[in-house]
Amino acid sequence: MASLRLGDIAPDFTAETSQGNIHFHEWLGDSWGVLFSHPADFTPVCTTELGTVANYFPEFEKRNTKVLALSVDGLASHKEWIKDIEETQNVTLQYPIIADENRAVATLYDMIHPNANETFTVRSVFIIGPDKKIKLMLTYPASTGRNFDELLRVIDSLQLTANYSVATPANWKDGQDVVIAPAIKDEDIPAKFPKGFTKIKYYLRTTPQPNK
Questions:
Q1: Which residue, 66, 157, 195, 203, shows the most beta carbons closer than 10 Å to its own?
Q2: Within this chain, do residues 142 and 189 fall inside the same structural domain, yes or no?
Q3: What is the dihedral of CA 81, 87, 91, 92, to 10 degrees?
Q4: How many domains does the chain have?
Q5: Are residues 48 and 100 in the same domain?
Q6: In 3-state terms, what secondary structure has residue 176?
Q7: 9, part of any domain
Q8: What are 134's strand-pairing partners?
Q9: Alpha carbon 154 to chain centroid distance?
Q10: CATH number for 19
């Protein structure tokens, strides 16, 4: 199987989840999506991650982004684990967890890395646009929990740069200045970016975030 790359269409699938059967592309609809995998149910780091996403759920909703978790355990196990997540993290889980016992989705998305572990998935993250294309891929080892503030920051950047001829600099956060795309000529900037711009180098020009 060829490995997935940025810009590829995210593979479609149907799967059983803790909230019923879903057809992935249909479920996404016109939303952005985050698909993230977990090594197994009843594991400590995953429990904190799923609880964190439940706490952050309104932030994902605000960004028109659906979240979908995956673990290679079955539905009965998921339902028991969800009770633990809700109890220990003091949350209500609002999003589905895929039951991927046959590892069909994990294999489709290359989430099992045999040199790390032959049976469990690594902590994969895919951000998928409304066009169903993969916009970001991240892979963490099983021992390192993810930073969901960073994933929200990336979604902010992806949604901004999809609509304006800009890029976001290192450590950028929503509301900060952005970089004007090199293809835009200096003389064309005022029409596109009426808030003005700062020319640091001919190739490095910044402007206030245009959608704020």
A1: 157
A2: no
A3: 60
A4: 2
A5: yes
A6: coil
A7: no
A8: 128
A9: 8
A10: 3.40.30.10
20 and 111 housed in the same domain: yes
Residue of 46, 68, 111, 179 with catalytic role? 46
Based on the fold, state whether residues 143 and 182 are members of the same structural domain.
Answer: no
Reported as a single tens digit per residue, the pLDDT across 160-171 is 999 999 999 999
> How much is the pLDDT for 113?
54
> What phi, psi does 180 have (nearest 5°)?
-80, 135
Q: Are residues 130 and 63 in the same domain?
A: yes
Q: How far is CA 142 from the centre of its chain?
A: 17
| 46 catalytically annotated | yes
Full-model pTM: 0.92
Alpha-carbon span 74 to 79, nearest angstrom: 9
Predicted local confidence at residue 1, as pLDDT: 47
Residue 149 has phi, psi (to 5 degrees) of -60, -40
Q: Which of 25, 46, 27 is nearest to 36 (CA)?
A: 46
DSSP assignment of 4-66 equals P-TTSBPPP-EEEEBTEEEEHHHHHTTSEEEEEEES-TT-HHHHHHHHHHHHHHHHHHHTTEE
User: What was the pLDDT predicted at 6?
Assistant: 93
Band (142; pLDDT cuts 50, 70, 90): confident
Q: Give a yes or no: residue 154 inside a domain.
A: no
Q: Give the per-residue pLDDT at 110.
A: 84
Q: In this structure, are 173 and 104 located in the same domain?
A: no
Residue 141 in domain: yes
Q: Which residue has the tokens 């059983």?
A: 16
Domain of residue 189 covers 164-207
